[in-house]
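Re: weekly structure request thread

Next one in the queue (381 aa):
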Amino acid sequence: MSDQFPRESGVAAAAPAVAALAAGVAERAEEERRIDAEVLRAVVDAGFARHFVPAAHGGTESTYGELARAVPVLGARCPATAWSAAIVASLSRMAAYLPEAGRKEVWREGPDTVIVGSVSPVGKARAASGGWRVSGTWPYVSVVDHSDWALLLALVATGEGRPEPRLFALPRSAYRIEHTWSDIGMRATGSNTLIVDDVLVPDELCFAAQDLLTGRAPEGSAGCHSVPLPAVNGLFFTLPMLGAAEGALAYWTEYAAPKLRSGSHVPGPGPGRGFYEETLARCSGEIDAARLLLERVAATADRDPAPTPLETVRGQRDCALAADLLTGVVDRLFRASGTSGHRVDSPLQRLWRDVHSAAGHVVLQFAPAAAAYASRVAGTV
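Done, posted below.
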């Protein structure tokens, strides 16, 4: 472990150093389409992998609020690194739902195990002697090239017509990777395809997806584990966007500073000073609004008792709404940056691409979040 990222410090304290390291290799990581190994080591040493790991297995059982302070710091310099940090924190939280024997196996080497995964129902499993035979192809698994374990959702035939979704933990030796990641944004997340070919997974390495969805964590679990997945899932994908928007505003403000310091008229062709004033005020205000929404999601998740059904759908709504706000902010800044902001060596164009890639995630779409929220408020569910 690097002395630069002491474990006794929380992720929020360590985030600036990780962000600086990630920014220095961001272009190379984009070209390689995976997070730099040294950067991922720094992310792990900073405590992101162990952030939600149970204390019984050496983890910190920390808060959503601290994660909400740390991830945007990374996102302002490298959204792909922020995304990767949020993913390893999220999947470690999910793995805490495994039976005790399974948790001991996953964290046998310590709480800094890098767990990746997918809750897309694209795998299949069938009961077998000693456990389950699991097969499937899961695309878009971020950080998979650096993973130690994977947590994957597969459907189990029940004989009653409707299959049961279950989550299965597999060690790195049990799956293979195809390098299929080709998106224009979030390139350095290395969100490649994970393939499992008829692997036996013992009973202690699986649990019902319904437990995760409802926050029914194992007995004695910390409060951070007893939060329904829908109440916080969007947080892990929106916090990198918040950081990206903050980074874009900082870059744009530096570009616009001479124009803001000028008189009422900016020399040469183009918009006047008022255009830059309005852009600055509107973008900073919308970033603040998005931050407040996400801070409320985190604070609600950290509160005891866990979020109510209404607070859960409100959290889904707030994350999707924040994603829309932040995408609009970065679009406005990108358009107002002139041709200099569109150069291939400009950090702004990378932030712009990363935000749009993140905003495309299925959990950040506003229409289904709005439908869930309206149905709960109207009492139709």
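The chain has a mean pLDDT of 93. DSSP finds twelve helices and seven strands in the chain.
Next request, please.
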